[in-house]
UniProtKB/TrEMBL annotation:
Record's protein name: histidine kinase
Entries under PANTHER family matching the protein: SENSOR HISTIDINE KINASE YPDA (PTHR34220), SENSOR PROTEIN KINASE HPTS (PTHR34220:SF11)
Catalytic activity: ATP + protein L-histidine = ADP + protein N-phospho-L-histidine
rRNA processing is among the record's keywords: no
Topology in membrane: Multi-pass membrane protein
Subcellular location: Cell membrane
Organism (species): Paenibacillus rhizovicinus
Annotated ranges, domain HAMP: 324-376
Molecular functions per Gene Ontology: ATP binding; phosphorelay sensor kinase activity
Superkingdom of origin organism: Bacteria
Segments passing through the bilayer: 22-42, 303-324
InterPro entries given in the database record: Bact_2-comp_sensor_kinase, dCache_1, HAMP_dom, HATPase_C_sf, HATPase_dom, Sig_transdc_His_kin-like_C, Sig_transdc_His_kin_internal
Length: 606
């Protein structure tokens, strides 16, 4: 079961086709209930067999024990007869052994033998060494003299109560051996209750053997009867009859007076059912082979397995057919998507049914139509963009015309020896050329400083050298790529607003610091500064908190701030700080190193 679950899980983890997944699901949903039902049915069948067999064998053993107890009870009754016969007791206390004594005791022994057909012989012993018996066979036990003293000792210890002796093997020369079990009782005087003799009753195991063989024929197993000391009363294998049990493992798990356990004997599994007699203390154990007991259950299991295999094969065929029919529309759509990926948009999915696949096909067709519409719209937009670019190129004619006209004026001024006008015209042309170069969005800091220098040289003619500027930047910063026209608007604001009312020359300084992954470029002036109220308004306007301003300088700073944020990200931009009569400092926060790499040009502007 767990293996099937892992197989289905692996099918869904890998990039398997929908048909394989559907087949796996169908097979799993069919196999799982069948295997589960078969397993549960087999286990219930086996448990039912074990339970019914245990109950039946307990009843059989109880009946067998009842018959055996009845036999032993009859033997005990026979041993009581001398206790109630004063005549027999008078002969037993007489020391002499004459014919009358022998005949009378023999009469009583014959009478007792006839009371129980299962008994094989009865023995009476007096305390004068005389033994009286009558046997139903043609041979006499050869161990009577050896047993004489033992029997009397056992009987005296029992103090008049009967004692059961376990199975003994009787071996008689020229006769087949046989087994008996005995009941012994001490004969007591009815008046003085003194011991005057011993009576022993033997019974062959024929009755036990016949019943056990019948049970073994039914169970195909074996039966073992042991006493409390684990001496074997009877053994179906006839290995330990009359001896201590030679394989103690046969009694493993057998506890209490009755029950059923599963055990193994000589590598064979058995169901052992046992019952102990309250009268004799003998434990009867019937061992039933599991293979025989579960034979019918195994046949049922095998038939169920064959049926399961046939059902699985049929289910596999049906699942393959169903999965093929269910996944065919999806395969068709997959092929159409591949064609779309290759650029063929003139296709459509044929919708046959209004199920989930049909709805998916409808949306697929709508998506294709929408894609074609979007492509047409993009084509129109591209055409309009090209037209706009063409118009933009045409609009560059006027700036170039102005630049060429300025160059003509400069040449005319040189011819007229007006060098100042020529220089101003030359610088203005350089500024125009830098501004109209639309092919580059970023330039190196060095190029931006060069443009700034050209611009300030032009402003010197207007402000009569009332300012001085310097750039103190390391080579790495000079090669840093910055947005074009970033420094010039800031310095222009510093000159226009910082020189007003100033009688001394204003110093403007450009420097930089690198802090981790940030580059800070500072543009500092020693001008008039900005009043706090105006500075707060300017800072809000640059940061976007205020929508409008009347300050021309604020428009330029906000424009630079927005350009930096759009190009580098929201965490970068422009900040301004100022103190009245001390000056203003504008800070550009940029990423370091440059996202565009390094510009290899080096050097400071002239």
């Amino acid at each position: 079961m767990q293996g099937a679950v892992r197989w289905v899980g692996s099918i869904f983890k890998v990039q398997s086709s929908m048909q394989k997944k559907l087949t796996a699901v169908f097979v799993f949903l069919i196999i799982t209930p069948i295997i589960a039902i078969s397993y549960i049915s087999y286990q219930n069948y086996v448990d039912s067999i074990n339970k019914n067999t245990s109950q039946y064998m307990n009843q059989v053993i109880a009946n067998f024990q009842s018959k055996l107890e009845e036999t032993i009870a009859n033997m005990m009754v026979v041993t009581k007869i001398p206790l109630y016969s004063q005549e027999l007791q008078q002969y037993l206390v007489t020391p002499s052994l004459d014919l009358a004594k022998q005949n009378k005791i023999d009469f009583y022994i014959g009478l007792m033998n006839n009371l129980n057909k299962d008994m094989s012989s009865t023995y009476i012993l007096d305390h004068y060494g005389n033994l009286f018996y009558r046997i139903k066979t043609d041979a006499v036990r050869p161990d009577l003299k050896q047993r004489h003293a033992e029997w009397q000792s056992i009987a005296e210890r029992a103090e008049g109560n009967p004692t059961i002796l376990s199975t003994q093997e009787i071996s008689i020369p020229n006769h087949p051996s046989y087994y008996v079990f005995s009941v012994i009782r001490d004969i007591r005087d009815v008046n003085s209750f003194a011991s005057i003799g011993t009576i022993v009753v033997d019974t062959k195991l024929d009755a036990i053997q016949e019943t056990v063989e019948q049970m073994d024929a039914i169970t195909k197993g074996m039966t073992l009867i042991v006493d409390r000391d684990r001496n074997v009363i009877y053994d179906s294998r006839k290995q330990w009859i009359g001896k201590p049990l030679g394989n103690p493992a046969m009694l493993k798990g057998i506890e209490g007076s009755t029950g059923t356990v599963e055990t193994a004997v000589d590598g064979i599994d058995y169901i052992a059912t046992y019952n102990r007699s309250d009268v004799s203390g003998w434990n009867t154990i019937v061992y039933i082979p599991v293979d025989h007991l579960h034979h019918d259950a195994k046949i049922t299991r095998n038939l169920t397995t064959i049926a399961t295999v046939l059902i699985v094969i049929a289910a596999l065929v049906v699942s393959i057919v169903l999965s093929f029919r269910l996944s065919k529309p999806l395969r068709t759509m997959t092929n159409l998507m591949i064609e779309v990926q290759q650029g063929n948009l003139d296709i459509s999915f044929r919708v046959k049914n209004k199920d989930e696949v049909g709805v998916l096909g409808l949306h697929f067709n709508r998506m294709l139509r929408r894609i074609k519409d979007l492509i047409d719209e993009i084509y129109v937009i591209q055409n309009r963009k090209k037209e706009a670019e063409l118009e933009a190129l045409q609009s560059q004619i006027n700036p170039h015309f102005i630049y060429n006209s300025l160059e003509t004026i400069r040449m005319k001024a040189l011819l007229n020896d007006d060098e100042e006008v020529a220089d101003m015209t030359f610088i203005l042309g350089k500024l125009m050329q830098y501004s109209i170069n639309r092919g580059k969005e970023t330039v190196s800091v060095q190029e931006e400083l060069q443009h700034l220098d050209n611009y300030l040289n032009l402003l010197k003619y207007r402000f009569k050298n009332q300012f001085h500027w310097e750039a103190d930047l390391p080579p790495d910063v000079l090669r840093y790529d910055v947005l074009k026209l970033t420094f010039q608007p800031i310095v222009e604001n510093a000159i226009l607003h910082g020189l007003e009312g100033k009688k001394v020359k204003v110093h403007i300084r450009v420097f930089a610091k690198i802090a981790g992954e940030r580059l800070h470029i500072y543009i500092q002036d020693e001008g008039n500064g900005i009043p706090p109220a105006i500075l707060a308004h300017l800072q809000s306007y640059i940061g976007g908190q205020t929508g409008e301003t009347a300050m021309k300088s604020g428009i330029g700073l906000k424009n630079i701030n927005e350009r930096i944020k759009l190009y580098y990200g929201e965490s970068f931009g422009v900040s301004i700080d100022s103190r009245v009569n001390e000056g203003t400092i504008v800070t550009l926060a940029l990423p370091y190193p440059s996202p565009n790499g390094w510009n290899e040009q080096e050097g400071l502007p002239c």
